[in-house]
Amino acid sequence: MPPTVIAAGLEFPEGPVWDRDGSVYVTEIRGGQIRKIAPDGTTSVFARPGGGPNGAALGPDGALYVTNNGGFNWHNSMPIGPALDYETGRIERIDKNGTVQRLYTACEDVPLSAPNDLVFDAEGNFYFTDPIHRNPNLRETPGSLTKRQGKVYYASPDGKHIHRVATNVQHPNGIGLTPDGKALIVAQTFAGNLLSFPIRAPGEIGEAQIFGTLPAGYYPDSLCLDEAGYVLVAGILGGGTVVFSPDGKQVDLIPSEDRVVTNVAFGGPHYSTLYISESGLGRVVTHEWP
Fold this sequence. Notes:
Oligomer: single chain
Helix content: under 10%
Order of helices and strands: EEEEEEEEEEEEEEEHEEEEEEEEEEEEEE
Strand content: over 45%
Distance between the termini: 12 Å
Shape: globular
Number of strands: 29
Largest sheet: 5 strands, antiparallel
């Protein structure tokens, strides 16, 4: 069955989030704003945090939590490094009225670089990835890109606590938790693979193992997991969503018309609808998940 387009004309959409009222929030990295797609398909600007709002998730308080990379410079509709007016990477909380609050801009006096994606755990806190902004003044090869190390953090939604849980991760991007809460899955975009970190306690993780590797030409962006533990990964530049079984074997590939597939998330009344952001085409589409 072909996908259903629920929104178009968006400025590099990412981070789709389904709300229980049937609406969908979607970040626009290039637009520096967040749109709300109503159940009838109409769209409106929900908030204007500026910078580059990227990943998003609803917190236990019902507010929208957003990883903001601080804004990109663009070339041929693709991000190539920090924007000229880049101020800082940050984590933001946006209430139901669209009011934006900055929660974190640093950890232990180390500024955040370009926060990318986040996931809440059963404790009501969240893990988030923070890759390093690309330097547009350097000629970077695929080999050099894999050497750019980023971090993973754990933080509370009240803005009072943040600490690093992992370093030296190769461009950490999408992030998710297994259904049993025992492992943290992190995408390493330029390495083309996924890591699995065992969770020893909330906010404490062990040594990573490679969980799965994407097919040639596909690079992992954001991801989600279903209740059985299948991992669905937006394969940017490959043009599809790569599906892994709970033991890390590729079992399916959901094709997209767009090569720049950046995010996939569950929603709908039974959480069986996939919301996929196709950033090159500037749209959000849905598929049904069996």
